[in-house]
Specification:
The protein has about 400 residues and is of the alpha/beta class. It is about 35% helix and about 20% strand. The protein has one domain: TIM Barrel (Alpha-Beta Barrel), CATH 3.20.20. The strands form 4 sheets. The protein has a 5-stranded parallel beta sheet with strand order 12-13-14-15-16. Helix 2 runs parallel beside helix 3 and helix 4 packs parallel to helix 5. The structure holds zinc ion.
Length: about 400
């Protein structure tokens, strides 16, 4: 296939060129301008479009797509835990096989239209656990996206729900990996997991050779619970006691970790998924972005638009830095290692499981997407919870 006439955009270092690309099988094999088409070759005319490496959403909940238009709870949540109890834990309990599949389709299409070609999803559907990851996988592969999927293990649905969640993670990681999908071991958060459950999760990680994907210190309540019920220590110390801070573990949020705790997590080889819009929307505080190194951006179910997420992170960054370092930077793409390289670090994070190197260059794996450069869509409002309602985007991708 020959891609002709597009602007090629790469992020690390930032660069825009005009060139044609030839793709054969899974590789970009030639780059130049102009490249002559060969007999019988598919030619895609891309005048006016931007071709860029596919973006990676490092932490999302596809089932959140179904919350759009959903009426709010009868009484307004007064805390983060009440948001979970009155909104998300009601929605996830209502999910069945068909709604899980449809949420995957909606999320995948939206992601593709925003230039996102890989999703790391954290799924929960307590009334439909066994087979739920396969249902999501089917939807994502129908759209053609790559994914790393896991089921969110928790004690809140009793022992049976917990055990089924672990089984779903293990079965999927062992048996359902394909060219487009991988399995991780999902866990909700320290405050809904007892010691026995953490032990079982550690065993599942070891048995599958995979890694943990868990919410960490998203809200102060998670930190306080750990101190009160688990010997006065921190969540990082608790996870480490069970050997769960292994290489490639993905820790979502980390809003209430100290820079020292983040350093420990990084030293253990963990990735941190930073979710700026969700954190602001839930009013849980904001991650100490100045301390983040192995960090990648996630939308936490707000939508699939990583450029909107990066923009929000960049705008929030000055206040976040000034509160942690006393050194307020301007909001430019070069001042925060965590944010300026969010796209490329997400690609690096994704390479923990996938090939591809985030370049539009010869030899690269073309996880690229196409966006119309002439139609810059307005950012629709995100109003509540992980974000609803949302309107459709104007971008075009393939
Ligand atoms: Zn989340």
């Amino acid at each position: 296939m020959l891609l002709k006439g597009a602007r090629l955009a790469t992020f690390d270092p930032p660069r825009v060129d005009e060139a044609d690309l030839r793709v054969e099988g899974e590789r970009i094999v030639e780059r130049g301008r102009p490249l002559a088409s060969r007999s019988g070759e598919d030619v895609l005319e891309l005048e006016g479009a931007v071709v860029m490496p596919g973006l990676v959403n490092a932490h999302t909940h596809l089932y959140s797509a179904l919350a759009r238009g959903m009426p709010g709870p009868a009484s307004a949540p007064r805390s983060f835990v009440e948001i979970l109890q009155r909104v998300w834990w009601k929605l996830d309990r209502a999910l069945d096989a068909e709604s899980v599949r449809l949420s995957g389709l909606v999320g995948a299409i939206e992601a593709a239209r925003s230039g996102t070609t890989m999703l790391i999803d954290h799924h929960s559907s307590p009334s439909f656990i066994r087979g739920s990851l396969g249902a999501l996988q089917g939807a994502l592969e129908e759209v053609g996206l790559r994914s790393a999927l896991c089921y969110e293990v928790t004690d809140r649905n009793g022992r049976e729900g917990r055990d089924l969640g672990i089984e779903e993670n293990v079965t999927f990681a062992r048996e359902r990996a394909t060219a487009l999908a991988r399995g991780l071991v999902g866990a909700h958060a320290s405050f809904t997991l007892g010691d026995e459950s953490l032990e079982m999760l550690a065993r599942a990680v070891s048995d599958t050779g995979s890694s943990l994907h868990i919410h960490v210190a998203e809200d102060r309540a998670d930190v306080d619970d750990c101190r009160a019920r688990h010997g006065g220590g921190t969540i990082i110390e608790r996870l480490d006691r069970f050997g769960l801070l292994a290489s490639r573990a993905l820790l979502a949020h980390c809003v209430h970790l100290s820079p020292e705790e983040i350093q420990v997590a990084h030293a253990k080889g963990c990735w941190i998924a930073h979710n700026p819009r969700s954190n602001m929307n839930n009013a849980v505080g904001y991650a100490p972005t100045a301390a983040l190194r192995r960090a990648a951006l996630g939308t936490d179910g707000m939508d699939g638009d990583m450029l909107a997420e990066a923009r929000a992170a960049c705008l929030k960054m000055p206040t976040s830095w000034s509160s942690t370092t006393g050194r307020p930077p301007s909001c430019t793409a070069t001042t925060s290692p965590a944010i300026s390289s969010s796209v490329s670090t997400a690609a690096t994070c994704a390479r923990s499981w996938w090939r591809g190197d985030g370049r539009c260059a010869t030899g690269a794996w073309p996880g690229w997407t196409r966006r119309r450069s002439s139609r810059a869509p307005a950012t629709p409002p995100a109003t509540c919870g992980r974000g609803w309602p949302r309107s459709s985007r104007g971008g075009e991708a393939r």
